[in-house]
Design a protein that fits this description.
By secondary structure, this protein is mainly α. The chain is built from 6 helices and no strands. The chain is elongated, with a radius of gyration of 22 Å.
């Protein structure tokens, strides 16, 4: 493999996306294209493809989790994992094509689904106004919303 000055952004937009267009469904290609354009290229698009490291990918994932969404809001772990899956697929194709020595996304650490499930489970559940009214007004005995278990 000879050294290349090809950047991550140029590879993804100019080579990878056009090359896979005929082999994936239109909706898959549109999703890949959006992820490359909106989530990957702005953060690591200017880096050299052959110099990309797992640490740079991990940094991108952490940045996206902390505030990489619209208006600086954090992205969900699932969204960041989809970004990881896209870059991993692109780098796997690049490895097959002989342009890189290894797929650095294979050793990067995207956020886990388990952590996301735990944070959702730990999130506080608040009652809506109708639920509160049903609980406090109406019958003379309190009622619980259907999704709130009774205490033993």
């Amino acid at each position: 493999m000879e050294p290349s000055w090809l950047t991550v952004g140029a590879f993804l937009a100019d080579e990878w996306l056009p090359a896979i267009r005929a082999s994936v469904r239109p909706s898959t290609w549109a999703s890949y294209s959006m992820i490359v354009r909106v989530r990957i290229a702005p953060r690591i698009g200017g880096l050299l493809l052959q110099g990309l490291t797992p640490a740079q990918l991990n940094s991108m994932y952490a940045e996206r989790l902390a505030g990489g969404g619209p208006a600086g809001r954090p992205l969900a772990a699932r969204t960041v994992r989809l970004t990881h899956a896209t870059i991993r697929k692109a780098l796997a194709d690049e490895l097959r094509w002989g342009r890189v020595a290894r797929n650095v996304a294979d050793v990067a650490d995207p956020p886990s689904a388990k952590v996301e499930r735990q944070s959702r489970r730990d999130a506080m559940r608040t009652w809506s106004t109708p639920e509160l009214l049903r609980l406090t007004v109406g019958n003379n005995r309190p009622q619980r919303p259907a999704d709130v278990p009774a205490r033993p």
